[in-house]
Design goal:
Elements lengths: L2 H5 L3 H5 L7 H15 L1 H4 L3 H17 L2 H15 L3 E5 L2 E3 L2 E2 H5 L4 H8 L14 E7 L1 H6 L1 E8 L5 E8 L8 E4 L13 E7 L6 E3 L2 E9 H6 L1 E6 L5 E6 L8 E4 L5 E2 L2 E2 L2 E8 L6 H13 L7 H7 L2
Parallel strand pairs: 4-8, 10-16
Antiparallel strand pairs: 1-2, 2-3, 5-6, 7-8, 9-10, 11-12, 13-16, 14-15
Helix pairs in contact: 3-5, 6-8
GO cellular component, one term: cytoplasm
GO biological process, one term: protein refolding
InterPro entries: DnaJ_C (IPR002939), DnaJ_domain (IPR001623), DnaJ_domain_CS (IPR018253), HSP40/DnaJ_pept-bd (IPR008971), J_dom_sf (IPR036869)
Length: 307
């Protein structure tokens, strides 16, 4: 925490205590407020959760005699208007800031108040991690996970976690206040996501991809073909006459929406060759072969072999 943020905060006011409060009074008041504001009781009330953090922060300083004395001195100077945000250890009513605390970088002194130099007092609980598997569709459109976890206190707890739209396989989402319990509040829960593959859809960045099977006739003569989307409706793509195998067609705006960005649907054409050709169809193909005999599709292929 920056020094300016520290000395501008009135930790006694946060706890609702006078500056003359004894250590036992501070401890008793903190425990009362911590029970009232604990995230397990406030259930997603962001205002009360923020208050809980402020109370824990105040107790961390005021419960330690050395930190409290240093804070009181800096706070007193600030209230008299003589304190300026320290830069290089100087500027308080014309004197040297180092003289006030007996030398050293003032930034280090304020950092020590918040655990930078041997932390004491209540600690936040450890962060925990679990795993969850979601479908490809859920990864694209988002979903809400309902998990049942066993806490470090032995009582199972239900955790509801929102998965945002557009998450990737291997992504982690954070659920605040659902980690292990600590005197200064619980840690957080991190959920590692595994995304099941889809039978026909894949993703490339924010674009969805799909392979579209087409017939030789459709590719040769051109066609309008319906393509399914993850939204449930169909879109129509137009194949130009002579569309080659592997050509990629783009359908704008039918990809993954992530924030203010929406990707596209990329459709790769895959020309299907029938395994068996019967009677009239075979005859038609032989006629086609005769009619196109003057076209050598391997001319460039052969010439490039000698390069």
């Amino acid at each position: 925490m920056a020094a300016k943020d520290l000395y501008e905060k009135d930790f006694y006011k946060v706890l609702g205590l006078p500056k003359t409060a004894e250590a036992d009074e501070i401890k008793k008041k903190y425990r009362t407020l911590a029970r009232e504001l604990h995230p397990d009781k406030t259930k997603g009330d962001s205002v009360r959760e923020e208050k809980f953090k402020e109370v824990s922060e105040a107790y961390e300083i005021l419960s330690d005699a050395k930190k409290r004395a240093e804070y009181d001195e800096a706070r007193s100077l600030f209230e008299r208007g003589g304190f300026r945000a320290p830069q290089g250890g100087q500027n308080f009513q014309g004197g040297d800031f180092n003289d006030l605390f007996g030398g050293g970088n003032p930034q280090d002194i304020f950092a020590n108040l918040f655990g930078g130099g041997g932390r004491r007092g209540p600690r936040k609980g450890q962060d925990l991690q679990t795993e969850a598997t979601i479908t490809f569709r859920e990864s694209v459109f988002g979903t809400t996970l309902e998990l049942k976890l066993t806490s470090d206190r032995g009582v199972p707890q239900n955790v509801s976690a929102r998965v945002p739209a557009g998450v990737n396989d291997g992504a982690k989402i954070r659920v605040k206040g659902k980690g292990a319990y600590g005197e200064a509040g619980p840690g957080d829960l991190f959920i590692l996501l595994h995304v099941k593959p889809h039978p026909i859809f894949s993703r490339k960045s924010e674009n969805l991809t799909i392979v579209l099977p087409v017939t030789f006739t459709e590719a040769a003569l051109g066609a309008d073909i319906k393509v399914p989307t993850l939204s449930g409706d169909d879109v129509t793509v137009r194949l130009a006459p002579g569309t080659p195998n592997g050509r990629v067609l783009r359908v704008k705006g039918r990809g993954i929406t992530k924030g203010s960005t929406t990707g596209d649907l990329l459709v790769t054409v895959e020309v299907q060759v029938p395994q068996r050709v019967e009677s009239k169809a075979a005859e038609a193909l032989r006629t086609f072969e005769k009619e196109t005999a003057s076209i050598d599709v391997r001319a460039d292929f052969i010439s490039k072999a000698s390069i």
